[in-house]
């Protein structure tokens, strides 16, 4: 999988020795830049934009997100709670399947509760009615599956055959929407406008007959809106068109776009050996700190990597033979003690870290590239590792 980001932006001038290693460093100015682009699209199109916490839930920036966006979208109870506690505006919760106890709380803290199937909505009707009778006010949504594959990689495509994500749109009947206020789909990943337009074209004939009973449509995330070459004016025109056509409130819920190119993961080379090529062990682990490197897989861009010079294979300190980040030309040479940084790590890395092998979690630092203010937000210790086990 090719990553379309990787612009060092202000990090080109960041001294990697200013923070302990390993550490995520997030640039507040870059986050604000992304959020203001999203807010501009929102305002021009007359829609609502929610930030997807699954991608970027650095909640110390919750009030900053609230300055620009209409709220957040959550993947279940914990993110919904985080959204309500630390962010402003609406909370829209979608989960592929709810457990009754979780749903009870979700219904009290969410503005939109989005279900994956009409079967779940019917099964939970008594609980939904009881929550409303107790004074809680929320909309019910149904996630549909557009059955329109657009993904570059099948395993990341919600429209893959036999997908579990969303109710197949071709099966939709008026009965399924009897108690539904809005329709949700999420079909994209790091994509441009054209796949969204094709997805809308695929679902539109199935949705138009039901407009009179609906309040809103949510087009999910995966829109790479803050990438420099994204077709933002065309997106605005497209959204204005759908809004005029349907008369409904439209939502987008981008995650990655909030934090695109806004953070790095700083690490240090601990040792270098020769095994047919230079192999360096770093204090960054692919499996613990950047699992998408193995899962996607993809090769994260490295800050200041020269275009020629000897390649070094970089890997983490864990026991996993496949804990390999990739082969890189390390700027200044791969020597113990040398600092390195991987670009575009604010989203889908910080939220996915784990402590396999007892590998320490990277600290979280906030930098403001405009003022140069640098603040430690959180450091992790042995206690954080121990607290997750028993
Ligand atoms: C339902 C839903 N909404 C929003 C998003 C955010 O997507 P992205 O971070 O690619 O914008 C995702 C990502 O998987 C998702 O599943």
TrEMBL record:
Could you describe the subunit structure of this protein?
Homodimer.
Q: Which family does it belong to?
A: Belongs to the Orn/Lys/Arg decarboxylase class-II family. NspC subfamily.
Coiled-coil ranges per UniProt: none
Q: Where is it located? A: Cytoplasm
The organism encoding this protein is Sphingobium indicum BiD32
Keywords (A to Z) from UniProt: Cytoplasm, Decarboxylase, Lyase, Polyamine biosynthesis, Pyridoxal phosphate, Spermidine biosynthesis
Name of this protein = Carboxynorspermidine/carboxyspermidine decarboxylase
Q: Name one GO molecular function term.
A: diaminopimelate decarboxylase activity
Kindly state which reaction or reactions the protein catalyses: carboxyspermidine + H(+) = spermidine + CO2; carboxynorspermidine + H(+) = norspermidine + CO2
> Which InterPro entries does UniProt cross-reference here?
Ala_racemase/Decarboxylase_C (IPR009006), De-COase2_C (IPR022643), Nsp_de-COase (IPR005730), PLP-binding_barrel (IPR029066)
Looking up SUPFAM superfamilies in the UniProt record yields: Alanine racemase C-terminal domain-like, PLP-binding barrel
Known EC number(s)?
Answer: 4.1.1.96
Q: Where is the Orn/DAP/Arg decarboxylase 2 C-terminal domain?
A: 110-344
Q: Give the protein's biological function.
A: Catalyzes the decarboxylation of carboxynorspermidine and carboxyspermidine.
Q: What is its main location?
A: cytoplasm
Q: Which cofactor does it need?
A: pyridoxal 5'-phosphate
